[in-house]
Amino acid sequence: MALISYAQAAVLALQHEMSADARVVVLGEDVGRGGIFGQYQGLQQQFGAERVIDTPISEAAILGAGVGMALAGLRPVVEMRVVDFALCGMDELVNQAAKNRFMFGGQGRVPMVVRMPIGIWDASAAQHSQSLESWFAHLPGVVVVCPATPQDNYSMLRAALASGDPVVYMEHKTLWGELGAVDTDVEVALGHARTVRAGSQLTLVSWSKQVQVCAAACEALAAEGISVELIDLRSIWPWDRAAVLASCARTGHLLVVHEAVQAAGFGAEIAATAAEATGCKVRRLGAPRIPVGYAPVLEAQSRVGVQAVADAVRAMLK
After folding, report:
1. Are 78 and 114 in contact (CB under 8 A)?
2. What is the pLDDT of residue 241?
3. pLDDT of residue 1
């Protein structure tokens, strides 16, 4: 096992897959110089400009090229820099990649991984700080992944490339420098959650960077004698209903926490499913429905912090 960063874990995963399969290619803006977060560092030097392809600044062209490559037999990794920019190429993903397998009776497959970093990017304001995973969970035909750790960024990127379907791969913009142990032999199946810590009184479900916030809240609550089971969902679609519902049935309480805007967030789907299946008490906690501000005091209004999570747990258990 090696102690490496979240970004380095992605590079390691791509090195492995590109070495094993010549069909795996990368395309996007600035990928040749390693990407703006270092998530492609050294790959063009190792595999050449024919497989790590710098593109014009046109998200529609990048995604469209990726769809065409996938249909022609390649396995492209398409870099969108941040999810906010990917909106310029939505037609290619929503109307082409997601629907091709269904509309053509399985004759066409789009084994493409689209990397769309999500989340509040410190002091980067409203057009660079969105978490839009619920948009893509609503889209039939795509897989949606939100890895929270270096290990998962390694293992789940490899699983995404092997899935054979279009994967919306959503890394958090401020996790790139996070360090963690990575075992290159560990495989993670898409759609399987991770139990971060066991507990008996309440089930806490989250994903991406917000898992760290929830883990800190669990530590504070444990000091008060409150036992919380924390589940990192990891895959937004498919999501691990079995793991979440089994936990809710035991604890009788569910709190879903995400950085995305609470209104119509994916937490609502989890809460409704759990309430229908187990009758547990449910609550959601997400950001207010406001654009992320640039000034620190405004940006803070969009963050769901440790204190807010802990207070929500206490309120549910009263």
Report:
1. yes
2. 98
3. 83
CA dist 206 and 219 (Å) reads 15
**Residue 128 a catalytic site member:** yes
> What pLDDT does 314 receive?
98
What percent of the chain has pLDDT above 70?
100
Which residue, of 147, 182, 217, is where some domain finishes?
A: 182
Does 112 lie in the same domain as 38?
A: yes
Catalytic residue selected from 16, 128, 192, 258: 128
CATH of the domain at 221: 3.40.50.920
Percentage of the chain modeled with pLDDT above 90: 99
3-state SS record for the chain? CEEEEHHHHHHHHHHHHHHHCCCEEEEECCCCCCCCCCCCCCHHHHHCCCCEEECCCCHHHHHHHHHHHHHCCCEEEEECCCHHHHHHHHHHHHHHHCCHHHHCCCCCCCCCEEECCECCCCCCCHHHCCCCHHHHHCCCCCEEECCCCHHHHHHHHHHHHHCCCCEEECCECCCCCCEEEECCCCCCCCCCCEEEECCCCEEEEECCCHHHHHHHHHHHHHCCCCCEEEEECCEEECCCHHHHHHHHHHHCEEEEEEEEECCCCHHHHHHHHHHHHHCCEEEEEEECCCCCCCCHHHHHHHCCCHHHHHHHHHHHHC
Same domain for 44 and 170, yes or no, is yes
User: What's residue 75's pLDDT?
Assistant: 98
Residue 165 sits in the same domain as residue 305: no
Overall average pLDDT of the 186-210 stretch: 98
Kindly state whether residues 105 and 130 are assigned to the same domain.
Answer: yes
Enter the tokens of residue 80: 């969108």
